[in-house]
Amino acid sequence: LYLPEISCYKSDIATSYFASFQYDILITGGGTAGITLASRLFELSPYKIGIIEAGELVNPGQNSLVDTPALSWGFNTSPQAQISGRNLSYPRGKMVGGSSGINSMAWVRPTRNELDSWSSFGISNGWDWQGLLAYMKRTENVTIGNSSSFPGSKYPSGYDSLVEGRAGPVQISYNNVFSGVQVPFVESFLQAGGILNGNPDNGNNIGIFNGAHSVDPETGNRSYATTAYLPTLQQNPNIVLLLKAMVTRIIFDETSPNLKATGLKYVIGNDTYTVSAKREVIISAGSVQTPQLLELSGIGNASLLQAMGIRPILDIPTVGENFQDHLSVPTSFLLHDPPPSTLDELNNNASFAEQQLQQYLVNHTGFYTMLPTYSYHPLQQFISDADINELISVTQREISERKLSRLQKLQYELQIEWLQTGIAGQLEIALFPGGIPDLPGATVAGKSYVSIVSFPQHPFSRGSVHIASYNPLDAPIIDPDILNFTFNHYVLNLGLTLCSRIASEAPLSNLIKVTTNPPNNDLSSYISSTINMEYNGIGTTALASQELGGVVNDNLLVYGTLNLRIVDASIIPIHMATHIQTLVYAVALKAADIIISS
């Protein structure tokens, strides 16, 4: 993996050198959005830009959702009362490139209807499908897939140049090899009510498709913000990236009616530094740490800040609220002997693993590049209209019993509409060709498994992310409040039932010996012990009108400030049926155009 040489300062002398500059723009966070934004600003302007990143320049490889200190912050949620007080792991990338370096590499776009719904929140300025499509295309270079690799495909994956980008720096490709369970899975899913989608990037992602991934087909390696956008910053004197430095506070000039951000405080070890910005300060710290930094700087719910010993300078009660993520619950099945080829064979058969490793090293293909199969589905594909109407009735009753913000009321109206009309996927179903470790059901060494995971995409839960104390080195409190609606329970149960139904249909059923997870019929206990999130957190500094409780306007400026912008997933106002990295890149590229035009 090529990692370019750039101006990275991390020694004692170098940190003083970094702080000695006055930058035009300071960016806190060199993750997915931050590096992308800096690269595009460099292309468009002569600005001197300083980027402060807490992590290092490392090679994460193909590891997905790892929680090792070298790559991740190691966050956990607060205890979740609805699931017996479990604390859920919440990996967030701590490196140049951020979470694009540890995600599952899934490259999925949201639907047109979901993006167009943002106008309901009192914003314009091209924050819709048509406006964001150009940026989604600009970031990607889609390599057309094999026309015969996916069952039922009429055209090669990624064929549509009207909606696919062909010249961007993030390399996108499709599976070049399939396990022995993937084709049977698709055929059985069609028997269970699923549909095929030959062009999921055109604004409608409903159905089963050969999923794209951010993998460079020339190397078989992860393509992410570091490999895509850092090379353009190589040895450029106007871009300085400081590593292993933790931003602790935004500095403001409080003398004007609207706050003016003038710099940042940051720490390296036990030393504190201050650096100044002439034009703008931009937060790109992600859905967890962006609200944390705002609150540490005195922007947020004044009552909460005062309780933490922080002087409020701007009372925005919705900072850190509106936290949303997808949910997940897995199933797994033991395969008959002799089993079809799966990823388990890499562990069970040393000679096969060596052969596949050589194939990967020489040709950059084979099982070491194999990735999951994705699909998105409205509930109408699997349950009756009467059941959907009953679910809507129960959900509306629970909504009416709660004290909601104006933003939440609008969000729930949209979610009810999507549920009723079936225009947005409610369940993501993904096939993982192998076993999943650490599930309750017993697994046998040397055996092969297939796993099917369901991911509810539009849960009604609204959580929060807030500071735990005034100490910037303390991890924030992440509370997803994951199961506080009957709807969430229902869709999780439906997902498990659907996965079992798929597994019971031929030809996949012919390969399966027995269900290993769930190990019994107590689905409620099983969900409580295995539920997790999909690590697509959004919404904690929502893009919405100030009247609705938004934190940033449609120029991404924090309300009440002159020059403090937020550019990351935290601005996404409502969740969508997608993996969010496509949208985060697009937000960063659009933000660069907004900054230059202003």
Automatic annotation (TrEMBL):
Against PROSITE patterns, the record matches this protein to: GMC_OXRED_1, GMC_OXRED_2
Entry annotated with the keyword Glycoprotein: yes
UniProt domain Glucose-methanol-choline oxidoreductase N-terminal: residue ranges: 93-116, 286-300
Keywords (A to Z) from UniProt: FAD, Flavoprotein, Glycoprotein, Oxidoreductase, Signal
SUPFAM superfamilies linked to this entry: FAD-linked reductases, C-terminal domain, FAD/NAD(P)-binding domain
Keyword Transport included in the entry's annotation: no
Cited Pfam families: GMC_oxred_C, GMC_oxred_N
Binding-site residues, FAD: V247
Read off the Gene3D superfamilies from this record: FAD/NAD(P)-binding domain, Glucose Oxidase, domain 3
Q: What is its cofactor?
A: FAD
What molecular function terms (GO) are annotated for this protein?
flavin adenine dinucleotide binding; oxidoreductase activity, acting on CH-OH group of donors
The entry sums up its family as follows:
Belongs to the GMC oxidoreductase family.
Report what the protein is called. Answer: Alcohol oxidase
Which source organism does the UniProt entry give?
Lentinula aciculospora
